[in-house]
Design a protein that fits this description.
The chain has helices at residues 32-44, 75-78, 86-94, 99-108, 124-130, 158-163, 165-174, 180-186, 195-210, 214-230, 233-247, 251-263, 265-273; strands spanning 6-11, 14-19, 51-56, 79-80, 83-84, 113-117, 120-122, 134-138, 142-144, 178-179, 191-193. By secondary structure, it is α/β, with parallel strands linked by helices.
């Protein structure tokens, strides 16, 4: 298959899906979410593939949904006669072919998925990473979802299950970020390593998994997934999608988008993050190293 926003490749038993909008930190626009799901389908139907690796080209894994143009890339999906349509928005988020189900194709894949995270994994980008089975990040990665502050809510619910009650309350209310190192300490991800070791660490993990029979991998993944689903994952996602749409259309959220359109995303992000001193307002020591680049 040919793709516009991703690159798909196979080497031995490992399929690699690379998000490929490096100039925009791989921020999500159509058709990227659908192409991710399509690539997962290709890997799942390839008998030679045992493991899928998901990564981002350039300086980041994925900076979330791209709202630089006021989120107009999604107008056909969420607006009627130029105005936000709550019903249309909800269907867009939750229906087969919508972004949440695109992300969850990683969860549903019978073949294990490893997310290789570096740079920024924000908002929808963080939700995408958390849908993978194993997450390995660079120590200096910035992982988080600022949506709880403004313009969004937990979308897939996976942050809640990864964090546990105490930390889910803390991060869900503040929207604050965490480094790859802290994410590993909190158990949100599996491991963090220096960036120089990231690709080799992911490859070693993928090769080790590939020595296990595919049926065994699929069975073990399914058991764990069903346990989480029995705790109400689908119900949480329904509520998350409903409130995410609503919180993107409050008076404050609309002013946020207006500011982003008029003065640029950095100005809007600065206003959102100033009180917390993270994301756009983090000092150099608490930002991903811009020299850490995944070359394709």
């Amino acid at each position: 298959m040919e793709f516009e926003t991703i690159i798909y490749g196979v080497e031995g038993a490992i399929a690699t899906i690379t998000l490929n909008r490096p100039s925009r930190l791989n921020a999500l626009v159509p058709p990227m979410p659908a192409e991710i799901e399509a690539a997962v389908g290709v890997a799942c139907n390839d008998p030679d593939v045992s493991v899928i690796v998901l990564r981002g080209a350039g300086r980041s894994f994925c900076a979330g949904f791209d709202f630089a143009d006021g989120f107009h890339a999604w107008d056909d999906d969420i607006k009627t006669d130029g105005k936000w349509d709550i019903g249309k928005d909800f269907v867009w988020l939750t229906a087969p072919g919508g972004p949440v189900q695109n992300f969850m194709s990683l969860w549903r894949s019978p073949k294990p998925v490893i997310a290789m995270v570096h740079g920024y994994a924000l908002g929808g980008g963080s939700e995408l990473a958390l849908a993978a089975d194993l997450i390995i990040a660079s120590d200096d990665a910035c992982i988080g979802t600022p949506g709880p502050r403004l313009w969004g809510a937990y979308l897939t619910g996976l942050w809640i299950y990864r964090l546990g009650l105490t930390k889910a309350k803390e991060y869900g209310l503040t929207g604050k970020s965490m480094s790859g190192k802290l994410a590993a300490e909190l158990g949100v991800i599996n491991k963090s390593v220096p960036f120089a070791e990231l690709e080799a660490t992911v490859r070693d993990q993928a090769l080790a998994l590939a020595t296990i029979p595919q049926s065994q991998l699929a069975a073990n993944k399914l058991v764990v997934n069903r346990a989480v689903e029995a705790m109400g994952l689908s119900q949480v996602q329904t509520i998350g999608c409903m409130f995410d749409g609503m919180m993107r259309n409050t008076p404050e959220a609309l002013k946020f988008l207006e500011l982003a359109e008029k003065e640029g995303v950095p100005a809007a992000a600065a206003a959102r993050d100033r009180a917390f001193g993270d994301y756009s307002q983090a000092d150099a020591e608490n930002r991903p190293d811009p020299n850490n680049v995944i070359h394709i």
